[in-house]
């Protein structure tokens, strides 16, 4: 009887150890957002202030499509169903969270146009232009802010609550200026680069849901992933992360979805 109990105990320990090892496996998710069809032409913004520096017109930054069809500034973040608990992040994210995120004013545009950051992570709102700007940021979970940033100045801020969707950033002095700020509790998020590529490093192995968003349509309710059409009213993309690299390939977004409504 004692041997049997000991055997059961050993089996239990082995089982727990196996589960722990599995929980510590990680995978990196990569892919590329591309436009499916001809990119719409979006009129340039008319400049009404500080024309001598900003110029008479500036490209509208809401849609950026590269020569290879890659779509920039598509955002995605870990989505949790009600009652679900976010997975414990990989240890590497603890150090990354200590580094400030920089949002700069460059040539009368925000750089970057879309940025993601963690709750409580320091943001440095900078002004690299030779003219004053202000940062007006409006969210739902966080109190709004409206701060002047003089030439060469920096305003530091921390957002204390997660936002369900990106917050609007604007400049009251220069009304065409606009940007988006994503604030999440989980570090598992990404914003596509100039060529449309994205990387989410060290996700726990297992099944996850990612919410996909772009400024023009909001949540991307239709995508083509690996030749398969994905439709979801919340813009959710379900993936299974395996150890190592998980390349989702090209994720196609119909050009019609990226056409601004008149």
TrEMBL record:
<protein>
    <recommendedName>
        <fullName>Rhamnogalacturonan lyase domain-containing protein</fullName>
    </recommendedName>
</protein>
<keyword id="KW-0732">Signal</keyword>
<dbReference type="InterPro" id="IPR008969">
    <property type="entry name" value="CarboxyPept-like_regulatory"/>
</dbReference>
<dbReference type="InterPro" id="IPR008972">
    <property type="entry name" value="Cupredoxin"/>
</dbReference>
<feature type="signal peptide">
    <location>
        <begin position="1"/>
        <end position="23"/>
    </location>
</feature>
